[in-house]
Automatic annotation (TrEMBL):
InterPro entries: DUF3014. The chain crosses the membrane at residues 12-30. This is DUF3014 domain-containing protein. The keyword Membrane applies. It holds the Pfam family DUF3014. Keywords: Membrane, Transmembrane, Transmembrane helix. It comes from the Bacteria. Residues 35-81 are annotated as: Disordered.
């Protein structure tokens, strides 16, 4: 009969099984711990979208010059030899005429502002380069209607004389020599991108298009409500015809002249225009 083996001699299989289980548990615990302690993997890199580009708003194109002005050639004309605009005016028109009729204070600024206003609804006398016509605006009554008075022609006679005092070529030559002053003044009053000579030609065309009424225009005296009577009622006349009253300021002024004086002024304006546009650069 065989003897049973001693305990020390028992098979190692159960022990190995226990070790395998312990190792498996240890490995499982270590793996989970590593997973908990390890930092999360970095997020995949995403290419950053470029910042949107903002294009500046388009700038308005510089207006094309229609009637460029070039300096006049050297000449022996005293007006062109003058060192400044006022001296040139005196050489062209005479000292007495300039001092009595022109407002030479900021003359270039007054000219560009008045020219621009003549093509609009209002031309304030405060900025005119000439002194206002003397006397009062008068009317003639025919029945219960009022018309521009024939006596007004005398008030405008000196301006017609001034308009024809110098030939168009000499006048335009003086204007061309001192044109930079007029252009600078035009920019100063708010037309930084405009060309004054183009506006001058445009306004001359407006004045030349002044209608010729079949008869002396009828006027009305506008009523002013209030306890105090106006001190200068003769300044409140307006054209009875709404079509005439809505005309640009320069045309309304020309309609106050006699038909003959208006023709004289238009003829001179046409001659000046021809001289202005016949000298392109």
């Amino acid at each position: 009969m065989k003897q049973k083996p001693y305990a020390s001699e028992r098979s190692p299989a159960p022990i190995i099984a226990v070790l395998v289980v312990l190792i498996a548990v240890a490995l499982y615990w270590w793996h989970n711990r590593q997973q908990q302690e390890a930092p999360p993997p970095p997020a995949p890199a995403v290419a950053e979208a470029p910042a949107p580009t903002v294009e500046p708003p388009p700038q308005p194109a510089q207006p094309e010059i229609q009637h460029p002005v070039t300096p006049p050639p050297d000449d022996t004309d005293p007006a062109l030899a003058a060192g400044d605009l006022n001296a040139g005016l005196m050489a062209l028109l005479g000292n007495q005429t300039v001092l009595s009729m022109l407002n030479t204070d900021h003359f270039a600024q007054r000219v560009v502002a008045t020219v621009d206003n003549l093509g609009r609804s209002l031309a304030a006398p405060a900025v005119w380069p000439v002194h206002p016509a003397p006397g009062r605006f008068t009317v003639d009554a025919k029945g219960d209607r009022l018309y521009i008075g024939a006596a007004n022609a005398k008030r405008y006679a000196q301006f017609v004389k001034l308009a024809t005092a110098a030939g168009p070529d000499r006048l335009v030559a003086l204007y061309r020599k001192f044109y930079p002053e007029f252009q600078h003044a035009y920019e100063e009053i708010g037309y930084s991108r405009g060309y004054f000579n183009d506006r001058l030609v445009e306004v001359i065309d407006i004045l030349l298009a002044t209608p010729e009424p079949d008869e002396t225009p009828q006027v009305l005296l506008t009523q002013v409500q209030g306890p105090t009577a106006p001190e200068r009622p003769w300044t409140r006349y307006e054209y009875a015809d709404p079509g005439l009253e809505s005309l640009p300021a320069g045309q309304r002024i020309l309609l106050r002249m006699s038909a003959q004086d208006r023709k004289t002024v238009k003829d001179r304006l046409a001659a000046v225009r021809a001289a202005l546009v016949s000298n392109p650069s």
